[in-house]
Write a structure and sequence with these properties.
It is a single chain. The protein contains four helices and five strands. With 89 residues, the protein is an alpha+beta fold. It has a single domain, classed as Hypothetical protein (Metal Transport, Frataxin, Chain A, 2-Layer Sandwich). The strands form two sheets. A three-stranded antiparallel beta sheet has the order 2-3-4. A two-stranded antiparallel sheet has the order 1-5. β3 and β4 form a beta hairpin. The chain is globular, with a radius of gyration of 15 Å.
Length: 89
């Protein structure tokens, strides 16, 4: 049982590592490839909208990277799977 749990957790960790960090610039370029357009900027955040109505907000902080948790939220907002998003990244 311990070997099974260890295998599951290492698999989850490797999936998490795929989404470890990215820059907002790289993320915005990826979202543009998918069809999202910048509709407004508010302070250090950019709001992107897809023609079908999906919205997401990306923070733009120079020199900082977007962590895995926020990247997961952005991917969820796009309606894509992690694998599909990584294909464009």
């Amino acid at each position: 049982m311990d070997a099974l749990n260890s295998s599951v957790f290492s698999s989850l960790r490797s999936k998490q590592n795929e989404l470890e960090t990215t820059t907002s610039n790289k993320n915005n370029k990826t979202l543009s490839k998918i069809g999202f357009k910048i509709v407004r900027k508010h302070g250090s955040h950019v709001v992107l909208k897809h023609p079908d109505g999906r919205l997401t907000v990306v923070p733009v902080h120079t020199g900082e990277e977007i962590g895995a948790g926020l990247l997961n939220k952005i991917i969820k907002d796009t309606g894509l799977s992690k694998e599909e998003f990584l294909k464009y990244l």
